[in-house]
Amino acid sequence: MSGTVSPKPASRFVGYSVRGGVAVVTVDNPPVNALSPGVPEGLESALGRAAADAEVSAIVVMGAGRTFIAGADITTLEEMAWGTGPGAPALHDLLQKIEDSPKPVVMAIHGAALGGGLEVAMAAHYRVAAPGAQLGQPEVNLGIIPGAEGTQRLPRLVGIERALDMCVSGKPLNATEALAAGLIDQVIDGDLVEGAAEFARRAARGRKTRERSERLGSPESNVRFYVGARQLAAKIRRHQEAPLRAIDAIEAAAALPFDEGCRRERELFAQCVAGDQAKALIHAFFAERAAAKIPGVEKAAASPVQCVGIVGSGTMGGGIAMACANAGIQVLLSDSSEAALSGGLARVRQNYDISAKRGRFTAEQVEERMALIRPQLELKGFARADVIVEAVFENMALKKDVFRELDAIARPGAILATNTSTLNIDEIASATGRPESVIGLHFFSPANVMRLLEVVRGKATSGGAIAAAMSFARQLKKVGVLAGNCPGFIGNRMFFSYMYETQFLIEEGATPQQVDDALTDFGMAMGIFAVDDMAGIDVAWRVRQELGHFREPGVRKPLVQDQLYQQGRYGQKSGKGWYLYGEDRKPVPDPEVEALIERSAREAGIARRYVSNREIVERSIYALANEGARLLEEGFALRASDIDVVYLNGYGFPAWRGGPMFYAGLAGLDQILSRIRQFEREHGSRWTPAPLLVRLAREGRTFRDYDRERAA
Ligand code: 3H9
Predict the structure, then answer these.
(1) Mean pLDDT throughout 548-558?
(2) Of ligand 1's atoms, which has the minimum distance to the CA of residue 74?
(3) Which end of the chain is less congested by CB atoms within 10 angstroms, N or C?
(4) Looking at the predicted structure, is the pLDDT value of residue 698 above 70?
């Protein structure tokens, strides 16, 4: 291809070259070509240059590196949310310039065209994309709506129904879907720039998207789409504002002229970005990325895990095997008897079949995954594993036996991981001659679904092992969070305080259902008693024995859970626990349990009283934050935001509240401290406030401030 290349870029962020009469304008703002200050200006000036360039008949806009444009720079949105910066880029002039260009503009999309990236692309006359491209309006994930005319142009291209679905779900379309939906004009196999330039050369000057109205429907025909979208929002984004405001903005697209619709969008965008939900969700976005950064530990060089050995084919072992097979990793799955192993494999097969029935996998994909899982009765074959995960019963003696055996078999440098949820990693590591390679990989059940992976560092665990474990988490598409080695690590250590507090609340007068309803109204994915029944009351009992909870004299011990255990009420698995369960596994309150709670409280001399939902939420959630503050100060979590990531991805804490530590900051640490002091007066020393919480509250700071100061 002949052409001239400009000696100088149009701006620091935008390159300009000409290929056979087509200007190629390249956004170059690594890592994801976000629309940071300077990028829109650079684009505008490159477009102006192309317009004036007599040699140029058409324009292609693309992204350098791994992606097109991943949207507005979220750091600028964060500043806007907190009122500390000028805020989001004003893209209107750029979009108008693209749309009004006298020469056809073709967007050449690879990687991600998300948020503002898609909004820029939709202002062009044409869009072409590489097969792997993703196009979407994921703003709801950040608690906002598209703010650069996306709610007005998207429905003009894909229709009201599809636009609503994209803006409420936040899910992107792949290139094939985008083509079918009318969002792009061609999928280009092979060289994207060449293909896009060729497309541009042949292109007539296209229509302006803002002038299209044929897919906007009529007020009558759209009603059912709005109703459907509100139902979808209630189902998948309960309690969230942004999806509802996105629907309002799309309604405006259908009802108002383009410019008025854009005005309405701007108002709704401004409302959302100033709200607490946007602050929380933007915090969650950056918190997840910060968790991958571990001071003193270099990111592992890319040497993906090829083979994983798993000891134990029970619920956890099987789920971990599925998580690995889903990532294309070969799995050696072992158990102590033929019967246990075939039972474990049958469960894996059954889970895959259920997923296939739900349309998540094809039958062929299920077979590919099953073929990656090789059952073995002996551990000998584990010599070739890069990572070995022990997933046997929560029993220290048993785990040490397994690690002794693994030490004799595993290749040098292999990661020896335990999936314990509570036990001491150092003691487990002491059974081996290589404690530097021993680490905790605490998967959450179901391990093939839950995104969280707690990576637990023992006192001898090497930086290399930590880096490898974090990279393994990424390979499994999970969020790895580093935790220190204390009983329960981050997640369960806090969970104990939370769980026991709710059990005290039912002794004092609430019911399990009232507690669960109050917590789900707060936004938790499940109520605590329903969680306990799902995880197994027998499992919780075993953990209590192993960790010696309530052995100290004078400590208030919950009265009912041991009795449920003794009655064989293990939860869902036995059809009854805190609740009763039928075929549909929906929890049904059980008068027998309520009578047991009342009787136990009376015998213990606890006066039953009215407990408000507000008290339930405060005592549950503040118990989490207080314990979180303790373990942060003790160094078992690197950052408060890591604790939030654990709770958002492993414990169903609502993302739009940002996690327990972020939520505490928004609620006001001084307010929380005064309630905690009151609880201390009423309930004793388990409510002693964490020193860090006291200090921050006194200084008028939050856990977010604390993280920022320590990172600086
Ligand atoms: C928007 O556009 C609003 C509009 O309507 C306009 C309003 C006026 N900004 O995820 P990764 C960083 S809202 C700033 O690990 P991957 C990220 O923090 C925006 N930074 O990579 C990380 O930094 P670090 C709508 C961003 O390959 C690094 O890039 N767009 C942004 O796994 C790598 O990120 C979105 O919501 C950004 N927009 O995934 C898209 N994006 O290395 C959000 C990323 O220091 N982004 N960073 O930790 C994503 O979904 C993924 O990052 C993406 C790449 C799929 C692009």
Answers:
(1) 85
(2) 9
(3) C
(4) yes
pLDDT tier, 5 (very low <50, low <70, confident <90, very high otherwise): very low
Is 680 labeled as catalytic in the residue annotation? no
Half-sphere exposure of 2 (CA within 13 A, CB side): 2
Our answer to whether residue 368 is catalytic in this structure is no
Please provide the average confidence, as pLDDT, over all residues in the chain.
95
Statement: residue 135 has pLDDT above 50: yes
Which tokens go with 531?
């969680």
In the predicted structure, residue 2 carries a pLDDT above the cut 70: no
Nearest to 109 by CA among 170, 178, 204, 52: 178
Summarised one tens digit per residue, pLDDT across range 195-226 is 999 999 998 888 899 999 999 999 889 999 99
pLDDT, one tens digit per residue, over 86-127 is 777 789 999 999 999 999 999 999 999 999 999 999 999 999
Tell how far the Cα of 234 is from the centroid of ligand 1, in angstroms. 26
Average pLDDT of the segment spanning 506-516: 98
CA of 48 to the centre of ligand 1 (A): 28
The rounded distance, in Å, linking the Cα atoms of 200 and 106 is: 6
Query: What pTM value is reported for the model?
Result: 0.95
183 CB-side CA count, 13 A: 29
State which H helix or E strand residue 492 sits in. Answer: helix 491-508
Residues 521-548 as b/e (b if ≥16 CB within 10 A, e otherwise) read ebbbebbbbbbbbbbbbbbbbbbbebbe
With the most atoms of ligand 1 within 8 angstroms of its CB, the residue from 35, 36, 74, 262 to mutate is 74
DSSP H or E stretch at residue 660: helix 660-667
- Do strands 579-581 and 479-484 pair parallel, antiparallel, or not at all (unpaired)? unpaired
Q: How far is CA 531 from CA 213, 522, 524, 537, in A?
A: 49, 16, 11, 10
Amino acid at 513: Q
Q: How far is the CA of 70 from the centre of ligand 1 (A)?
A: 6
Torsions phi, psi of 667, nearest 5? -70, -25
Strand positions, DSSP E, 559-658: 579-581, 587-589
- CB-based pocket (< 6 A), ligand 1: 31-32, 34, 67, 70-75, 77, 88-89, 91, 112, 114-116, 119, 138-139, 141-142, 146-148, 150, 289
Asked if residue 6 has pLDDT above 60, the reply is no
pLDDT in the model for residue 585: 85
SS3 549: coil
Question: Which candidate in 44, 78, 99, 119 is catalytic?
Answer: 119
Phi then psi for residue 628, to 5 deg, are: -60, -40
Residue nearest to atom 39 of ligand 1 (CA): 32
Atom of ligand 1 nearest to the CA of 114: 30
Q: Which residue has the tokens 């499992």?
A: 539
Alpha helix stretches (DSSP H) within 548-579? 561-566
Q: How far is the CA of 300 from the centre of ligand 1 (A)?
A: 21
Higher pLDDT, 10 or 393: 393
